[in-house]
Structures are given as C-alpha cells and as structure tokens.
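pasting for ref. prot 1 ->
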Amino acid sequence: MPLTDDVVVRRKDNRRAVALEERLATIEKVAGRMFATRGYNGTSLRDVAAGVGLSPAGLLHYFPDKAALLEAVLDARLGTVAAEFGLETGDGETFVRGLVAVAERDAAQPEDLRLFCLLSAEALDPAHPAHGYFIRWFSQVRAHLQAAFEDLDRRGLYRGWPIPPAQAAVNVSALRDGLNLQWLLSPDQVDFVATIRGSFQPYVDLDL
C-alpha cells in the first residue's frame, strides 16, 4: 500500500535473490548446452560445475543432484514454449501457426532441438529420469493437436476427412519428430520449415 496517493514507492531489489536467479540461469544454460552435445548420460555434474566455475560441492548448493538439474533445464528450454508461442489459447488456428513459428525458431536456433532429440532418445530407457517427462510431453502434443484440429473442424477449416482429427494429430506429430533427426543430420538436404508447413496442408484450410 503506498504511503500517499501521489508518491510512487520504489522498493529496493533483493540483490541476493537477483544474484541467485542469475546464477541458476547460468548453470541451466551451461548444462543445457552440454546435454545438447553429450546427452544426459554423457554429462557429469563435475563437467557442469567446471563450466560455470564452481566446485562439484558448490554446484550441489544450487541443485541437489543431476536429475534436478535436468528437470530445470527441460522446464527452461521446453516448458516455456507453450506460453512463448501462444499454444495455450485453445484457438486451433493460433495453435497451428504457433507450431510453425516454433519450427522457424528451431531452424534458427537448433540447440534446443538437438537437446530435445538427444534427451528423448535417452529417455526410452525406463530408468532415465526424463522417461515420464517425455511420455507426458508426446501425449500432450497429440492431445493439443487433436483439439486444434477439432476446433478448426467446427469452424469449417479442417479438410482432413476421412482422416479424423485424432489420427491427423498422430500423423503431424510423427512427421515432426522424424523430420527433426533428418534435418539435424543433413540440414542442407531438408527444408525444415517448409516441410513443417506442408505437413498441415492436407488437414487445414489455412494459408501458412
């Protein structure tokens, strides 16, 4: 509550909290880069600690173990995509356009895509700490795609029949995942964004 009606109270920043957030962001950035090149299994806490100028014990002050660090990296790199690209509006057209925008971002900054591919492949092992994370991720992607296609169908913008929206969601998400690897391995041979746009054309009446 302000002390008066006409004076803006300026509160001092909590410098310790700001410094902590900056240090956490630095650790997550370095760890993400290492996970994207070496995978989770090929990266040690000692590697990450050295990358940020800490001792292993010092790193454990911020993250209790490597699994906690992985969760933070996934949340920072992947968990923010929905909010950043408007994928939570419930509007089918916005969702589809958002996925194309994500593809454009991935093509320009492929580190997150490489991180996603390496970690999701490792997570096929049920013992991997991200196993459940990626099961939920792919399930949510299919569910959101299906909901987007169903919304477009109600608006007369879905043209995929006789393929129902649920199957179209599987088809589009599967093409995206397969394309990720092909493009990362041979970026000069695959037009990544154009293929993503084209994957929607059989199903939606939108100019993408």
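and prot 2 ->
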Amino acid sequence: MTMTDGKQYDIRVARENEKLDFTLLPDSIISIDKAYIDYRWLYALHQRRIFFVTRSKINLDCQIVGQHKQFTHKMIVRDDKIILSGIQSKQKYPECLRLVGIYYEEDDKYIEFLTNNFDLSARTVADIYKARWQIELFFKWIKQNLKIKSFLGNSPNAILSQIWVAMCYYLLLCYIKYQTKFAHSITELSRMFREIILDRVNLIDTLSLNSTTIRRARSPVPQLALF
C-alpha cells in the first residue's frame, strides 16, 4: 500500500514506485482504472510479462489488425486485436493489444476493455475488471466502519498512524474470516468484536454466533471484585 496526499496523480505514484516492483511476478494480472493508462508504463509491464486489464479511453486511436477469436456469448460485442495508431502512443506501446467490448443488458451499458492478455476468454477479461470494484467497496467499508472520517490528531504522522491501524485491523478481520470460514460479512464480524472487546470471550464460540446472540458467548467466569 502506498499513501500520498491528494495532489499526487495515480499514474505518477505508480511510475515512481515501479522500481520497487510491487513484488509483481511474471504472469501476474493487475486490474487498473483509466487513471493509470500510460502506454509507456503499460509497455514496461508488458515487457516484464505482467498482464493488465483496464477500461479503454473513449478517444482511443487505434487500428484493427484482426479479430482475436470468434465469440458466441451475447454479452460480447467485439474481441479485436489492435495496434495503437497515435503518433506518440504507438511509439510508447509498439506491440499489439486486445480490445474487448461487453454489453451489460441489466444496466444497458456498453464498456470496452484493453488488455495485453490474449489467452483468457473475453468474459474472463471483463470479470477481472469487474472484480476491481472490490477496491471501491473496500474504501467505502473503511470509511463507514473504521471512523476514518474524523482523525484523532492533525499532524501527518497522526493521520497516517490512524490509517495504518485501520488497515491492520481490516486485514486481521479478513484473516480471521478466511481461516475460520466465518459465514457472515466483515461488517458483522467487526460489530461482534466491538461488543466483546473488553470481555474475556472464547473466539471460536464467538464466531459460531451472530451480533444478536453475542451475549451467550460471554465468559461465565465472574470478574474479581474488591471488598
């Protein structure tokens, strides 16, 4: 995770941190939005055998050199093999790309995706980008559940510390949910932990309940009292 102030452009941060490699190995697949479309950077990823899936820009200047594969699914409108034809773009990305067009009937929306992966099906390419929405849901969850809207301090260190603590808490919740196969949502799990945070409770017993029956899991051991 990289955190910057709001003055930084997304693609600039990605380019500056490229030297760290983000531990991306060959055959990795990254899903990025249009803010990250920089053909020189995308070609650098391609040369490292890293696949990307992003949305195509409306003003994409390209030339169709062939159809990638024939398709029969009604959602797929196009699956073309293209080369960039802009004066600068074709210099920055001189190899072929794949342009996939999908029509979502339920939303009456047509979306085109750009990728350097020619092995996956067109539907899988679309699903990979759709999975990127989980990032937006993640930020929404953080803001709604971890009280990020108000900060305990105003200094950069205080703000960053609170954000890091919130992220660590979220990752711990995800880890517990994954390891224990907890059936309910992360929000439900967080709510349960908030209710028992100061109680001596068996974690396994807690995970077998829900927020309405959480009191059953409270320890029967009485608190020590002073006389």
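Residues 135-217 form one domain.
Residues 99 and 114 are 5 Å apart (CA to CA).
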